[in-house]
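ugh ok fine here u go
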Amino acid sequence: MELLLLRHSITPGNLKKQFVGFTDQPLTPEGEALARSKRENMPPVEAVWVSPLLRCRQTAQLLFPGLPLVEVPDLRECNFGEFEEKTWAEIQDHPAFQAWVNGDRAVTLPGGEDTDSFFARCQRGMRQVVDQAFQLGIRRGAVVAHGGTWMGILEAYGCPRREFFYQWQPKNCCGFRMEVRRDPLELRVLEEL
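structure:
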């Protein structure tokens, strides 16, 4: 089985270089245009799973018109808490932010999530998608989620391995075509999209 793992298209927060997690932002006109331009080069899929946030649903509808979307709550982006909709410049001196960007996975963002809990949630959501896809006999499906979500999932299941989980973050409306193997779960890169 194959899965296309895609990041949502451009949002207002992306343009402002903000940390946008649980805030339910729509796509910008540029984001809609980018998704439409990518549609013709997307491999055909039989099913689509999405984070329930609007930016992912809109991207999926533009890339795969006419297909129903299966929402997977565990694929939501990180809850950035007090850092939500802030830029790097606004929070760079905060001790929790410094620890977080330096890789302290146990630090809890003020009012938000710690990295380990976030990654565990995303991995649980991915296992749900894979189980459903295999049960349905899907040959190729698509999953539209967030940059942070893909980092958390691919750090655990992505092959070939990458040195840092940050190296798995795709650009907006980009991602990976993956071969899915089960027991143990493995997502092997076939192509970058």
